[in-house]
Design goal:
Layout: E1 2-3, H1 23-30, E2 33-37, E3 40-52, E4 55-62, E5 70-74, H2 80-98
Length: 99
Protein backbone atom coordinates (compact mmCIF):
# COMPACT_ATOMS: atom_id res chain seq x y z
CA UNK A 1 0.00 0.00 0.00
CA UNK A 2 1.23 3.48 -0.76
CA UNK A 3 -0.06 6.58 0.96
CA UNK A 4 0.61 9.66 -1.11
CA UNK A 5 0.86 13.15 0.30
CA UNK A 6 -1.12 15.95 -1.32
CA UNK A 7 0.65 17.65 -4.19
CA UNK A 8 -0.61 20.49 -6.34
CA UNK A 9 0.85 20.89 -9.82
CA UNK A 10 0.01 23.54 -12.35
CA UNK A 11 -1.89 22.10 -15.30
CA UNK A 12 -2.65 18.82 -13.55
CA UNK A 13 -6.24 17.82 -12.83
CA UNK A 14 -6.68 17.07 -9.17
CA UNK A 15 -9.24 15.38 -7.00
CA UNK A 16 -10.60 18.85 -6.14
CA UNK A 17 -11.31 19.43 -9.83
CA UNK A 18 -12.86 15.98 -10.06
CA UNK A 19 -15.75 16.77 -7.72
CA UNK A 20 -13.81 15.68 -4.61
CA UNK A 21 -14.26 11.96 -4.62
CA UNK A 22 -15.91 11.36 -7.97
CA UNK A 23 -15.01 7.70 -8.36
CA UNK A 24 -16.14 7.60 -11.98
CA UNK A 25 -13.73 10.43 -12.87
CA UNK A 26 -10.79 8.59 -11.31
CA UNK A 27 -11.86 5.31 -12.91
CA UNK A 28 -11.91 6.95 -16.35
CA UNK A 29 -8.53 8.60 -15.74
CA UNK A 30 -6.77 5.41 -14.59
CA UNK A 31 -8.47 2.33 -16.06
CA UNK A 32 -6.76 0.66 -19.03
CA UNK A 33 -3.76 2.98 -18.74
CA UNK A 34 -0.34 2.01 -20.10
CA UNK A 35 2.53 2.54 -17.67
CA UNK A 36 6.16 2.64 -18.70
CA UNK A 37 8.70 0.82 -16.57
CA UNK A 38 12.20 1.18 -17.99
CA UNK A 39 11.92 -0.49 -21.44
CA UNK A 40 8.69 -2.32 -20.59
CA UNK A 41 5.11 -1.16 -20.93
CA UNK A 42 2.36 -2.48 -18.69
CA UNK A 43 -1.38 -2.10 -19.02
CA UNK A 44 -3.32 -1.75 -15.77
CA UNK A 45 -6.98 -1.90 -14.90
CA UNK A 46 -8.87 -0.47 -11.96
CA UNK A 47 -10.20 -3.41 -9.93
CA UNK A 48 -11.51 -1.58 -6.88
CA UNK A 49 -12.29 1.83 -5.50
CA UNK A 50 -13.35 3.07 -2.09
CA UNK A 51 -14.37 6.60 -1.09
CA UNK A 52 -13.40 7.64 2.43
CA UNK A 53 -14.41 11.24 3.04
CA UNK A 54 -12.28 13.39 0.74
CA UNK A 55 -9.87 10.52 0.02
CA UNK A 56 -10.21 7.94 -2.72
CA UNK A 57 -8.54 4.54 -2.36
CA UNK A 58 -7.89 3.00 -5.77
CA UNK A 59 -6.83 -0.59 -6.41
CA UNK A 60 -5.17 -1.29 -9.76
CA UNK A 61 -3.78 -4.49 -11.21
CA UNK A 62 -1.27 -4.93 -14.03
CA UNK A 63 -2.83 -7.14 -16.72
CA UNK A 64 -1.08 -10.35 -17.79
CA UNK A 65 1.32 -10.00 -14.86
CA UNK A 66 1.91 -12.01 -11.75
CA UNK A 67 2.30 -8.80 -9.75
CA UNK A 68 0.00 -8.20 -6.84
CA UNK A 69 -2.73 -5.58 -6.84
CA UNK A 70 -1.54 -2.07 -6.00
CA UNK A 71 -3.57 0.16 -3.67
CA UNK A 72 -3.14 3.92 -3.73
CA UNK A 73 -4.61 6.56 -1.46
CA UNK A 74 -5.48 9.72 -3.38
CA UNK A 75 -5.88 12.80 -1.19
CA UNK A 76 -7.31 16.23 -2.09
CA UNK A 77 -4.87 18.25 -4.16
CA UNK A 78 -3.31 15.23 -5.87
CA UNK A 79 -3.25 15.11 -9.63
CA UNK A 80 -3.43 12.27 -12.14
CA UNK A 81 0.28 12.75 -12.88
CA UNK A 82 1.08 12.18 -9.19
CA UNK A 83 -0.97 8.98 -9.09
CA UNK A 84 0.47 7.65 -12.38
CA UNK A 85 4.03 8.29 -11.17
CA UNK A 86 3.27 6.42 -7.96
CA UNK A 87 1.74 3.46 -9.83
CA UNK A 88 4.81 3.25 -12.07
CA UNK A 89 7.11 3.34 -9.03
CA UNK A 90 5.10 0.61 -7.32
CA UNK A 91 5.17 -1.57 -10.47
CA UNK A 92 8.93 -1.10 -10.76
CA UNK A 93 9.46 -2.08 -7.11
CA UNK A 94 7.14 -5.11 -7.38
CA UNK A 95 8.95 -6.25 -10.55
CA UNK A 96 12.31 -6.09 -8.80
CA UNK A 97 11.00 -8.09 -5.84
CA UNK A 98 9.60 -10.82 -8.09
CA UNK A 99 12.94 -11.41 -9.86
Amino acid sequence: MNSLSPVTRAGSASIDEASRGDAQWWFSALDQRVHTNEAERRLTQVVGMHLDGADVWIQVQPLREQLRDLTIRVSPGMGVDDVVRSIETMIREASRQSK
